[in-house]
Specification:
single chain; 309 residues
């Protein structure tokens, strides 16, 4: 395995990693330690190694474990990577993962906030470009365990801090729409169960790849009441029963979540009545809510009047 200090180009580095087939964790660290130019080719290589290692080789594939996320975050923090390299690497993982710990998406969100609010080398404070907006989108709508496609209160707070820090500055026009729909998602949407839990996924693979009984498989499933074995004609019927129960529960939660409650109204009012003019992103949020909310509470209706929407 060649010393990275002897490699003269990204092409040589890529060849030394993938010539043997799949990458391993040592290869990923070697790529991080390469001290060549931070070029688009190098950033793409880092993303490719990460996807091969943490997505394609994961067990099961596309499921990023907490241990993997912790290891990856520690390695990134321990090495000097450009902001552009970090967001491309992390965004690639979130593009392909069907399940990942929220710590990983929170890490990407924090990197974007730090660059926009405080500035990083190569990214001055107050700049918010299309790459930042896309990284925010990846982080906000990542397939987080237990909160897939749902924007949390902490994530919405990050968006408000970014919006406030960029007030009056020229920013990518896509941010306003992302902000409005993401904060609206926090207020009115639910956390979808985007992926089968990893334990169930592994159990299903075991069922499909080895002789077993339907009853034995069902006894390994938890959390949802299903018909007895005699009522199920196949694993497909079992899956249909699971998703039917989940969809019924999601429908109930969605109907409840679509109503903005008092706590949410107070939280929103506090952000939108702070000192200083309302930002264009915040005004876009109110326009979005005015179109989507049926019978808005008094505090929200008051915000609509103040903003003239």
């Amino acid at each position: 395995m060649p010393d990275v200090s002897t490699l003269q180009s990204v092409t040589e580095l890529r060849g030394s990693i993938f010539a043997k087939g799949n990458a391993d964790r040592d290869d990923f660290v070697r790529a991080l330690e390469w001290n060549g130019e931070d070029s688009p080719d190098y950033r793409q290589l880092l993303a490719d190694v990460a996807v091969d290692l943490f997505i394609d080789q994961a067990d099961p594939p596309q499921y990023i474990s907490l241990e993997t996320a912790d290891w990856l975050i520690a390695r990134i923090k321990a090495h000097t990577l450009s902001y552009a390299a970090k967001i491309q690497l992390l965004s690639a993982l979130m593009q392909y993962a069907v399940s990942l710990p929220s710590s990983l998406s929170s890490f990407l969100l924090g990197e974007v906030e730090a660059a926009v609010v405080d500035g990083q080398p190569g990214h001055p404070a107050g700049r918010l470009d299309a790459a930042d907006v896309e990284a925010l989108r990846r982080a906000l709508y990542a397939a987080d365990d237990g909160a897939s496609l749902h924007v949390t209160r902490a994530e919405a707070e990050v968006l408000f801090r970014i919006a406030h820090s960029c007030a009056g500055k020229a920013i990518d026009p896509g941010f306003d729409d992302l902000f409005a729909k993401a904060v609206g998602n926090h207020l009115m949407a639910i956390a979808f169960r985007g992926a089968t839990p990893v334990a169930d996924k592994l159990a299903l693979e075991k069922f499909e790849n080895a002789p077993t009984s339907v009853g034995g498989f069902l006894r390994g499933m938890v959390g949802i009441s299903l018909p007895g074995e005699e009522d199920l004609e196949s694993p497909l019927a079992r899956d249909e029963a699971i998703w039917r129960a989940r969809n019924d529960e999601d429908a109930r939660l969605r109907a409840q979540s679509e109503k903005i409650d008092q706590d949410e109204t107070i939280w929103l009012y506090a952000h939108l009545t702070r000192r200083g003019d309302m930002t264009s992103a915040e005004r876009r949020l109110l326009e979005f809510l005015q179109q989507e909310v049926v019978n808005p509470p008094a505090g929200l209706a008051d915000l609509f009047r103040k903003a003239g929407v």
